[in-house]
Specification:
The chain is an alpha+beta fold and 275 residues long. The protein has ten helices and twelve strands.
Length: 275
Amino acid sequence: MPRKPVTHLAEQHPSAHRGVEAISVVSNRAFPRHAHDQFGMGVMAFGAHRTWSPIGTVEAEAGDVVTINPAEMHDGVPIGGEVRGWRMLFFDPHIVAAEIDGEPSRMAQIAHPVLRDPLLRTWFDRLFAQMTAAQPDRLALEETLLRTLMLAFGRHGTPSRNRVRPLAGGKPNITMALKRLDDAPEEAITLGELAALSGASRFQLLRGFVRELGITPYAYLLQRRVRAARQLLAAGRSPAHAAAETGFADQSHMTRHLGRTFGVSPSRWLRMLAV
């Protein structure tokens, strides 16, 4: 059977609210496992895809609300290789904290990556339209933002859980290895050094890492570098400097991984931030 042609159209929209990114995607491309520094919420417009998540593999179809917690590993594979489309808003964590701070329904995470909640979908659609409007009404936008986040966390929020739990029964505790990768992703390190931090063999570490996070230590390191580079680019660092400061071999290496992970090239993303 001939392979389906690759379709990938991603648009980074100008956002009316600082700290919120808006993107729409039409694609049959598979995304590798990665994480974001922000909360993500979106709606599947058509088609369907399958996603690996910390709670297991889930599927989302047209009309479903999809969510991503900060630093939560996930991927995205089109079901049957068919084109699917979705719209996403990414909220800096301080935006979410400011909106739901002090409320009884405040929760730290969204419990499930796929939600079948027609009311939340309606409010998200309204928020996306206002967030990407050329001249939004600020009061209406602020009210919709608050109501959407309160609805999401009030209905589907859960207290924060540790991302990595100590493993029992002789299995390696990868907490220290993970901390090392989080603290200095720009620095080179070997599998043996990470294993020593975990008190395990290299094979035990590799197996434990994949079991807990769904990716290998090197793939996790690349994701940390990608996210760090994106932060430096947003802060005004040049692509060459961002690549050097985050441990990439060169600018093209960084650009390739940013585009593969987020679906939008760094140059297009930066243009939208400047609007």
